[in-house]
Design goal:
Layout (H helix, E strand, L loop, with lengths): L26 H9 L12 H17 L7 E6 L1 H12 L5 E5 L2 H12 L7 E4 L16 E5 L1 E2 L4 E2 L13 E5 L16 E4 L11 E6 L1 H12 L10 H9 L9 H17 L1 H22 L3 E3 L11 E6 L5 H10 L15 E5 L6 H17 L1
Parallel strand pairs: 2-3, 2-4, 4-7, 7-8
Antiparallel strand pairs: 1-9, 5-6, 8-9, 10-11, 11-12
Helix pairs in contact: 1-7, 2-7, 3-4, 7-8, 8-10
Bound molecules: pyridoxal-5'-phosphate.
Function: Catalyzes the reversible conversion of 3-phosphohydroxypyruvate to phosphoserine and of 3-hydroxy-2-oxo-4-phosphonooxybutanoate to phosphohydroxythreonine.
Organism: Pseudosporangium ferrugineum
InterPro entries: Aminotrans_V_dom, Pser_aminoTfrase, Pser_aminoTfrase_mycobac, PyrdxlP-dep_Trfase, PyrdxlP-dep_Trfase_major, PyrdxlP-dep_Trfase_small
């Protein structure tokens, strides 16, 4: 074994965390958490100290997304994967339609396909690196798409399905897109995410911005008598959220770090600022890849290239896995591609927590390594 190549310090990013999730947590957030280590951590989630943090998070999220009147911020435990099951039990009346163009969209579609009380869903599929779209279909009462497909780096606009049955809901998985990409929430009924991506916190929580129609749907389904596991009961989640708490014990650090991050992003200028910062990082990495003789954006249609997560292919002579390994040896971590995509590729998170200057530094580090590997 030869020694790993040492990248000169002046080429390196200030912060070497480029993971798509868990993603970079701001040191300032962790310092704020350590300041409340004895007054907040290890205290009851049914008491004011913790409820105030849940309230701060819910308020901050509503402000950040300019939440329309009547929408509510609902949260509970288990991350986005738990929300998929919650939506399967509590938001889909009978038949759903999915736009599936990567692993995450596919997982929600599978949950619905496996549910014995729902009809076989319609799934529009597209291969990794491109996008699939929702189309009006009689009888579909819930449409579902991701905003950003984290496994491939494809982002699509959030838009209602023209010609859909009246009352049909749109459910948008914003786990990685939410906070990095512009959105008009009047265009969707449920915009849901988990805070370990653009919201620079830790995992274990799901947060859903829900329209009045979606909340109404959850009540109607529950009243229908369908069996709903208690942990996945959306009406309970709505009621508990209104009381600034969760059904069962949340990870207190996750709640606190998410609230810190949302306050920070709101102070910088909210979603307008955040999406611009992610766009700057995107311009840096895609611009570099376009100019590079050995790197190219995996997503060929520039309009679909995500500003939240960039996927960069490498020419046949360059081993991207070796590159990721050499970067890791230099403290630059989590640039490995999504496993199942199986490409000679690096994946880089462009969430607003990541400094665009660090993304530029990363491209310099890659150039440095490619010359020497
Ligand atoms: C990370 C991710 C998920 C999974 O989130 P968990 O909180 O780990 O369940 C789902 N959807 C998308 C788009 C993601 O990026």
């Amino acid at each position: 074994m030869t020694d790993p190549i040492r990248i000169p310090d002046d080429l390196k990013p200030v912060d070497g965390r480029f993971g798509s999730g868990p993603s970079k947590v701001r040191p300032e957030g962790l310092e704020a958490l350590s300041r409340v280590a004895k007054t907040f951590m290890g205290t009851s989630h049914r008491q004011k100290t913790v409820k105030d943090e849940v309230a701060r998070l819910r308020r901050g999220i509503a402000e950040f997304f300019s939440m329309p009147d009547g929408y509510e911020v609902v949260l509970s435990n288990g991350g986005t994967s738990a929300f998929w099951e919650t939506a399967t039990f509590g938001l889909i009346r009978e038949k759903a339609q999915f736009a599936e163009f990567g692993e995450f969209g596919a997982k929600f579609a599978k949950a619905v396909r496996d549910a014995p009380f729902l009809a076989e869903p319609t799934v529009h599929r597209a291969p990794g690196g491109s996008a699939a779209y929702l189309t009006a279909e009689p009888g579909v009462d819930a449409y579902a798409s991701v905003h950003n497909e984290t496994s491939t780096g494809v982002a699509v606009p959030v838009k209602r399905v023209a010609g859909a049955d009246p009352g049909a809901l749109l459910l948008t998985d914003a786990t990685s897109g939410g906070g990095s990409l512009d959105v008009d929430l009047t265009e969707t009924d449920v915009y849901y995410l988990a805070p370990q991506k653009a919201f620079g916190s830790d995992g274990g929580l799901w947060i859903a911005l829900m329209s009045p129609a979606a909340i109404e749907r959850a009540h109607r389904i529950k009243e229908s008598g369908r069996y709903i596991p208690q942990f996945l009961d959306l009406v309970t989640a709505v009621e508990q959220s209104r009381l600034e708490q969760t059904y069962n014990t949340p990870a207190l650090a996750t709640v606190f770090l998410a609230a810190e991050q949302v306050d920070w992003m709101n102070a910088q200028g909210g979603l307008g600022w955040a999406s611009k910062r992610s766009a700057e990082s995107a311009a840096a990495i895609y611009g570099w890849a376009d100019r590079s003789p050995f790197a190219s954006p995996f997503v060929t249609d520039p309009a679909l290239r995500s500003h939240a997560v960039a996927t960069i292919d490498f020419a046949a002579g360059i081993d991207a896995a070796a590159l990721a390994k050499a970067l890791r040896a230099n403290g630059i971590v989590d640039t490995e591609p999504y496993r199942k995509l199986g490409r000679n590729q690096l994946r880089v998170a462009l969430y607003p927590t990541v400094d665009p200057a660090d993304v530029e530094a990363l491209t310099r580090c890659i150039d440095y390594l490619v010359e020497r590997l």
